[in-house]
Design brief:
There is one protein chain. By secondary structure, the protein is mainly α. It has one domain. The protein contains 4 helices and no strands. Helix 1 packs across helix 4. It is elongated.
Amino acid sequence: MSIKFFHSISVFFKINFYISAIVLVGGCLLSATENHSIFEFNEDLYGAIGNNIRVIMVYLAINELAILLYCFLTKNARLMLAVGFFLILLIGSLEFYAEINAIEFDQNFRLFFLYTGISHLVYGFIEIEKISPTQTNNEPK
């Protein structure tokens, strides 16, 4: 029973990861639009600063797609650990950017990066668990 339970939990977290990847790519791409963005770009973010954030979000979506493709082709998704840490670090970077430019950001940015970051971290840890030990040259044959 415990093996089935852990397998069910693993499947749940994998499904959650795929949903978070869709949310990440979709949310980032939709942030480039005026009417369909899930983030609120207030009056402080008009002009160059608002465009900077939108371009960064599109760049983040492109990177996520490239990393997902790489992980799919190499059948090695442990890279998602690094992506998860990066996404969580983006929360601090966003706070720093807001402090320097004396602007307010939508609170949804924090939740967005926290959810996607934690989902990527958990998926990366699940993938590490699947690694089979390799033999080194020093081991007797």
